Amino acid sequence: MTVNDAVAKRIAILLKEKNMTQYRLEKNSHIQHGTMQCIMNGRNKATMLNTVIMIARGFDMTVDEFLDDDIFRSEMLEVE
Fold first, then answer.
1. Which of 10, 22, 62, 75 is deepest in the core (most CB within 10 A)?
2. Residue 78 lies in a domain
3. pLDDT (tens digit, 9 = 90+) per residue, 35-51?
4. CA–CA distance from 2 to each of 21, 30, 39, 43, 79 (Å)?
């Protein structure tokens, strides 16, 4: 699994947990719809740190909270 895949999965989980739409996250995080679609559909090769920060803020959480998930600690995570 790539880092982008992990970010997309974490977003999907948080959207469900927080009962939030992707549209609302895009508005809260100031990320363009096309960019979010590329992340969620796996078209990005990598997700930039500034994008992760914006996403975390869109969820009203810190980057540490966003990244504090087993998905980012997996030995299967491909880091290039």
1. 10
2. no
3. 999 999 988 877 889 99
4. 24, 24, 11, 11, 7
